[in-house]
Design brief:
The protein is of the alpha+beta class. It has one domain: Ribosomal Protein S5, domain 2 (2-Layer Sandwich). 29% of the residues lie in helices and 31% in strands. The chain contains five helices and twelve strands. The strands form three sheets. Strands 1, 2, 3, 4, 5 and 6 form a six-stranded mixed β-sheet that branches.
Length: 258
């Protein structure tokens, strides 16, 4: 019965798309309501709860001193992990990380690294021996679509509130983590030559392909991720990039005070 209902829902969404409509009344390039709450976890160095529509993601930051990687003795370390809580979706299961979780963590990590939001060289304590390690943990609490954008937004919002716990390790006074950029991920899907932004979970289920564009404050692209079996034409990619830059700018100005 569930599969039958699912197919009926897909047909309904498909027919709406053919008429240029979406089930929730949005235009194809319109985002659902976004909300961000920070400093929710007292034991974390930084935290943020992000909601995009009914999708909910909680991001937390922990920091501790540790050894640098041998090939980067003067640079701090960032480790990003994503947990897909089984209660968040019927498709999430307990156990080892799935491809979805691995992809999500890598895209979030890439946005932070490639934008140089955090200057890893400033995290060096003793060259070759001790650096700050930043752990970014993303927990998907409710998957109603587009959890990648919500996760990226949660991670950077949490980093913006992070205080380096120097006093905890006898390394002086605590101080705010310097954040140099605010990368924002914007995701679009393609179905039947139509491009839609901020897809909900039903729209994702019928998409041929998905493209996520991560942009920096200056509008430059610092990451892209394509998934799905479909293809995108050059003009579709250019449109997605243009809209991504505009949407990212709006989100920064409205929620992150840039």
């Amino acid at each position: 019965m569930t599969n039958v209902i699912s197919e009926i829902r897909k047909d309904y969404i498909y027919n709406l798309i053919l008429k240029g409509e979406r089930a929730d009344g949005r235009t194809f390039d319109e985002y659902r309501d976004i909300s961000i709450q920070t400093n929710l976890i007292s034991k974390a160095e930084g935290s943020a709860l992000v909601k995009i529509g009914s999708s909910q993601v909680l991001a937390g930051i922990k920091m501790q001193p540790g050894e640098p990687y041998p090939d980067a003795p003067n640079r701090g370390v960032i480790i990003t992990n994503a947990e897909l809580v089984p209660l968040a979706s019927p498709t999430f299961e307990p156990g080892p990380p799935t491809e979805v979780g691995i992809e999500l963590a890598r895209v979030v990590d890439r946005g932070v690294r490639e934008s140089k939001a955090v200057n890893l060289e400033t995290l060096c304590l003793v060259p070759g021996k001790q650096v700050w390690i930043i752990f970014i943990d993303v927990h998907i609490l409710d998957n109603c679509g587009n959890i990648l954008d919500a996760s990226s937004l949660g991670a950077i919002a949490a980093l913006l509130t992070t205080k380096v716990p120097a006093s905890k390790f006898g390394l002086g006074e605590d101080y705010p983590l310097p954040v140099n950029d605010i990368p924002i991920a914007t995701t679009a899907i393609e179905f039947g030559d139509v491009v839609m932004f901020d897809p909900d979970v039903d729209e994702e289920s019928i998409a041929n392909t998905r493209l996520t564009v991560i942009t920096s404050v200056n509008g430059s692209i610092c990451g892209m991720q394509k998934s799905g079996t479909g293809t995108l034409r050059t003009e579709q990619i250019c449109r997605i990039v243009d809209v991504a830059c505009e949407k990212a700018k709006e989100i920064r100005e409205k929620f992150l005070e840039v």
